[in-house]
Amino acid sequence: MSEFQSTASFEQIGEVLRRYQSFVLLSHVRPDGDAIGSQIALGFALQAAGKNVRLFNEDGLPESLAFLRGAERIEQPPAEPVVADVVIALDTATRPRLGEGCLHAVSKVKRWLNIDHHVSNPHYGELNLIDPSSPATGEIVYELIIALGLPLPEETRDALYVAVSTDTGSFQYPSTTAKTYDMAADLIRRGLDVGTLNSNTYDNHPLRRLELLRALLNTLELSADGMVAHWTLREATRRELVLCAEDSEGLIDVIRAIRGVQVAVFFEELPDGNSRVSMRSKDRRYDVCQVAAEFGGGGHSLAAGIRMHAVLDDVKARVLAAIQRRIDAAKGDVSHPSTPPSSNH
Length: 345
Ligand code: AMP
Ligand code: MN
Ligand code: MN
Hints:
This protein is of the alpha/beta class. It folds into 2 domains: 10-202, inorganic pyrophosphatase (n-terminal core) (Alpha-Beta Complex); 207-332, Diaminopimelate Epimerase, Chain A, domain 1 (Roll). The protein contains 12 helices and 12 strands. The strands form 2 sheets. Strands 3-2-1-4-5-6 form a 6-stranded parallel β-sheet, covered by helices on one side. Strands 7-8-9-10-12-11 form a 6-stranded mixed β-sheet, with helices on both faces. Helix 4 (137-148) packs antiparallel against helix 5 (154-167). The longest helix is centred in the C-terminal third of the chain and has 24 residues, at 312-335. The two termini are 20 Å apart. Bound molecules: adenosine monophosphate and manganese (II) ion (2 copies). One manganese (II) ion (MN) binds next to helix 2. Residues 28, 93-94, 97, 118, 278, 297-300, 303-307 line the site of adenosine monophosphate (AMP).
């Protein structure tokens, strides 16, 4: 993100929300809890304020999030462009990650808002509310709703909690702040049922997810120094276990949790012959967003992803080498603390 790109104020966003009547809310392909949760949360707040709202996602609603109230409002994009006043992209680091179908469906809508927390977001909206310090887009949506005095119906309340819970690894990652817990406390005071929501989010997996975990564990490899752990999902396994895209969501945390591991990587062969890489880091010195950026991907410094037009073995070799370069560079910094940073360039 360039320092010249300023983020919009809540008031500027509020002006657009008040002035216009019809809104299409979008989120990224292969949606996670923060993507769908942010759509439902802002969508129901706007609807309760009297607006017309549609919620599109390229890949539709994952079965794992179908328990959310209001989830039935998530639609796959219609084939023909829709008429609406404003598009709001949520939790989506780049415009192409909204998906071709969604981009076509909103191709006649002129006004674009972009609300996100990815540091790599290039500010592709007309107004951009981007806060990379926020642990989830859901937390930004919550702050916006409170700042503007928008309604906070039950659908919004539950969706905000699930958005933030899933993007913070259940309120654990370092991006979690007192503000995050204050939000959760406020939502609970508004009547949210913590036990049921968490149980629906975390204790309700299909058996095939565990079968996937078993298959992934069989591919687990560690680097010689034990700092990088990676595992691989091949297309044959996906077919054999009849997997859905969402089945692997969050599994990478299992290898991220190994003692000594600083970077965890999940390599995935996609049905179209392309590859997907998912990365997690425990330390900002090993910035996986920068690794992802080398290959056209993005995300956050501690969680990032790449989609590459290359076969998996090639992708693995190149990405692991890029990670190793960063780890070696960081080790170099530690062993030569007096070296001025400029000499590294
Ligand atoms: P994932 O590993 O898919 O859970 O993604 C980790 C983070 O990186 C999420 O915040 C994603 O939105 C982001 N991300 C994943 N893939 C990409 C990509 N190809 N381009 C930009 N951001 C990505
Ligand atoms: Mn997301
Ligand atoms: Mn997010």
